[in-house]
Amino acid sequence: MARRALITGITGQDGSYLAEHLLAQGYEVWGLVRGQANPRVSNVRELLRDVRLVRGDLLDQGSLISAVEKVHPDEVYNLGAISFVPMSWEQAELTAEVTGMGVLRMLEAIRVCSGISSSRTADRSGQIRFYQASSSEMFGQVRETPQNERTPFHPRSPYGVAKAYGHFLTQNYRESYGMFAVSGILFNHESPRRGAEFVTRKVSLGVARIRLGLAGELRLGNLEARRDWGYAGDYVRAMHLMLQADAPEDYVIGTGRTHSVRELVEAAFTAAGLNWEDYVVADQSLHRPAEVDLLCADPKKARANLGWDPGVSFEELVAMMVEADTRLLAAGPDPAQATSWP
Ligand code: NAP
Ligand code: F7E
User: Fold this and answer.
1) What is the tens place of the pLDDT at every residue in 149-158?
2) Domain enclosing residue 158, as ranges
3) Residue whose CA lies nearest to ligand 2 atom number 15
4) Rounded to two decimals, what is the model's pTM?
5) How many distinct structural domains can be found in the chain?
6) Same structural domain for residues 221 and 156?
């Protein structure tokens, strides 16, 4: 019988790539969808036709228990979150509820449906395996570079704090109940399906608009921040590998290379044959109350234990996104105004 996976956050960037990856591996894939008329669900219906849908919300404990009871998953991937860092200052309580407490509700749903009592269960065979989408934002004001699985956390946003809660809770359920529960500490990963609010996609869409004569400038915030950017399609492979391991362990996933936003902008404009300095406008209002200045992964453990390596380079990723957005805008309406994936 096919293995069954339940994915929260199926309408997001990672949910789509993970679903495609698991379907290709022969899984029966279920996606948790929320809301009465969520426009992003039509993307899943149209583009991920083989994914089955089940209703639920990370804010609603009962709905998660019902979803787990209905699907009977072998693996649960908790990707659902409020994931845009600036929004976490504007809606800090909601971020804590969805991104933080949502992890507790999902773990509890699995625990209750699996009949795991308060005592530690040693035998993990036949258990539902749980993946939590932890984030390099937990490192925040970094204590060392590069960052590995033992680097202490110092989150710099309500989002980072909520992720740290979910991370420690996942570890705690592993230790308290013997659950196969792991966290992937993923560094920034991007793609043509990335939300238009994140800097890589904002830049690739901005470059495409300028290239096609649809805009004359691109307004950006802090150009000096450095991130370790990889390709989302590579990172979902790591999520799956973590749940196939013999032992439940947490892993850092990133490329080990860091670039500034300025370098990202330069690469994207260069890919389109343009000079970024002619178009980019610095906008102080886009700076954050507290910034994460530098992130750079040390993915040695994932390479050694999981055999995982990122495939797509930074330069390939930027060129891929600029080309995809140029094709997209040349073909039809601006996706920042629409909800469909390219
Ligand atoms: P994304 O595109 O923003 O997707 C977020 C998903 O969360 C959407 O499917 C959204 O569904 C869902 N969601 C929001 N509120 C929910 C709720 N109350 N109940 C259930 N689902 C809810 O994020 P992503 O880039 O794919 O990232 C996936 C996960 O990895 C997130 O947890 C993110 O924080 C984490 N992460 C991302 C990165 C990265 O660089 N991409 C790095 C590290 C960690 P709706 O359509 O219903 O809004
Ligand atoms: O910002 C700077 C900004 O919003 C990256 C999420 O997936 O990755 C993501 O979080 C950097 C920051 O991603 C603009 O100040 C400059 O330093 O693309 P971002 P993020 O905040 O790193 C982590 C790992 C996650 O877990 C999150 O869920 O770019 N920046 N100018 C800008 N950023 C944006 N968005 N817009 C600008 O105009």
Assistant:
1) 999 999 999 9
2) 4-189+229-253
3) 222
4) 0.97
5) 2
6) no
